[in-house]
Amino acid sequence: MTSPAHRAGSTGALLTLLDLDDLGGARTDKDVFVGPSERQPRHRVFGGQVLAQSLIAASRTVADGRPVHSIHAYFLRPGDADKPITFGVERLRDGRSFSARQVHAYQDGVPILSMIASFQIEADGVEHQSAMPEGIPDPETLPSTADLLGEIDHPVAQYWAFDRPFDIRHVDPAMYVSAAGPHVARNAVWMKTFDAMPDDDGLHRAALAYASDYTLLEPVLRRHGLSWITPGMSVASLDHAMWWHRPVRVDDWLLYVQEAPSAQGARGLGAGKIFDRRGVHVASVAQEGMIRLPYLDGPA
């Protein structure tokens, strides 16, 4: 099981990742920030990390009172988790209600991610939301990742079990080492940070972007009976779109309900809705990922 001391360190590590250096206000034709990379057993930057950091960089250039409401991003190259990342923010527009920013994340002088983010002042208007699914077990009744993987002596298993800043609990059978259960294009997890986060709405929105990249391709894998350790399988996020509908706290339990409407051409699409424990629909997410299998023909 995860120790309290380790949990605090994981949440603190997330806050360190999101605390970008503005280089004393240095600018070119863009606002420039630098952020650290999170240690990874496979030495590749976690996509959720660069999403969250890019959002923090963009937010730093937007006036207070304009929270992010959407991002659209493309992962262009794998990132090196042993190197820092530089973020360049272009101020595309500041209107009466909306602000738009473009962010490029760079390593070794080339972009690894390109994102456009939109921010909006709070406004009144028509309102409705999706209903949270019924019959979902409480997160406290489900095993944690540490419960499932903590005894496995492998660097990736140990990282997932103890070093990630979010507590992830699968409603459906977890897919870390097997694809048990029906082959359906659905998946659901509860998630939250292990410890309390500061009362900063922007941090919570960025942290949610971080966590939204964890399991969104799992309904594609589940539909085809694949686990994360399927021999020879290669999985990579290609893009990521996200919409924040209402304020959110990531240090309270959130239900992430996911489906995979299509898979084709070595790509699979995952779509998700995120609800807080009261049933409030706080965000929606979509991502297409590359999924290649060694027994299927295709380009290298």
Automatic annotation (TrEMBL):
<dbReference type="Pfam" id="PF02551">
    <property type="entry name" value="Acyl_CoA_thio"/>
</dbReference>
<comment type="similarity">
    <text>Belongs to the C/M/P thioester hydrolase family.</text>
</comment>
<keyword id="KW-0378">Hydrolase</keyword>
<dbReference type="Pfam" id="PF13622">
    <property type="entry name" value="4HBT_3"/>
</dbReference>
<dbReference type="InterPro" id="IPR003703">
    <property type="entry name" value="Acyl_CoA_thio"/>
</dbReference>
<feature type="domain" description="Acyl-CoA thioesterase-like N-terminal HotDog">
    <location>
        <begin position="43"/>
        <end position="120"/>
    </location>
</feature>
<dbReference type="InterPro" id="IPR042171">
    <property type="entry name" value="Acyl-CoA_hotdog"/>
</dbReference>
<dbReference type="InterPro" id="IPR025652">
    <property type="entry name" value="TesB_C"/>
</dbReference>
<feature type="domain" description="Acyl-CoA thioesterase 2 C-terminal">
    <location>
        <begin position="171"/>
        <end position="290"/>
    </location>
</feature>
<dbReference type="InterPro" id="IPR029069">
    <property type="entry name" value="HotDog_dom_sf"/>
</dbReference>
<dbReference type="InterPro" id="IPR049449">
    <property type="entry name" value="TesB_ACOT8-like_N"/>
</dbReference>
<protein>
    <submittedName>
        <fullName>Acyl-CoA thioesterase II</fullName>
    </submittedName>
</protein>
